[in-house]
Amino acid sequence: MIKSLNSFRAIAFFVVFLFHIHLLGCGYLGVQAFFVLSGFLITPILVNMKSKMNFKKYWINFMGRRFLRIFPIYYLLLIILFVLGYFIDYKQIPFAASFYHQFIYAVTYSYNFINSTDSYERNSLIAHLWSLAVEEQFYIVWPFFIFLIALSKLRKWLLYIIFIGPVIRAIMSLLIYYGFFCRCYFPSKNDLSCLCPSILLF
């Protein structure tokens, strides 16, 4: 990792921290900064691996590293919270009442989906896991993209993505603003009635 990026990471962490203690309203941008940093660091690793391995080794090597770094502590947290739920009735705690309903989304790394609905109820025990869900989804999609694009054309395609990303976000924002994704009535507030696709676009 480039040493100068340590300062970038520290700043991103600090602004997120300030956001959570209600001292910096725009501190949530630190999460986006972490997304950018992740892409910036992962892409050269994938390019280097692509030039040395077939797809099977490339995929196993990359996902193996991600598994060892994230999965153990992630699922340990969920197991601990799940077990504690037998001793502490989460339904009696306002900030944790929705834990068991939302648990399946946390387990499947799809917490950003429920997080983006109108029916979402913030659960302080696992609310922060939406960003890890986005990160894992990126780890699944991005290796395929890097492997399938010829190295000679990769720079051009990356420039296309940089340009198209904000355009797609703007279009999605307009569609969501005018209710394009929220025209159906769902009798249960637990249904994913108003999924916001833009949550997946960094």
DSSP helix fraction = 55-70%
- The chain-level mean pLDDT equals 83
Assign an overall shape.
globular
Number of domains: 2
Order of helices and strands: HHHHHHH
Give the structural class.
Answer: mainly alpha
Low-confidence stretches: 183-202
β-sheet strand percentage:
under 5%
Rg, Cα atoms, Å: 19 Å
Number of strands: 0
Number of helices: 7
Main sheet properties: none
Distance between the termini: 21 Å
Q: Can you walk me through this structure?
A:
Helix content is 66%, strand content 0%. The protein has 2 domains: 52 residues, no CATH class; 148 residues, no CATH class. With 202 residues, the chain is an all-alpha fold. Helix 1 runs antiparallel to helix 2. The protein is globular.
List keywords for this structure.
202 residues; 2 domains; globular
Compact description:
The chain is built from 7 helices and no strands.
Chain-wise SSE layout:
Blueprint: H1 4-20, H2 29-50, H3 55-87, H4 99-107, H5 111-115, H6 129-148, H7 151-177
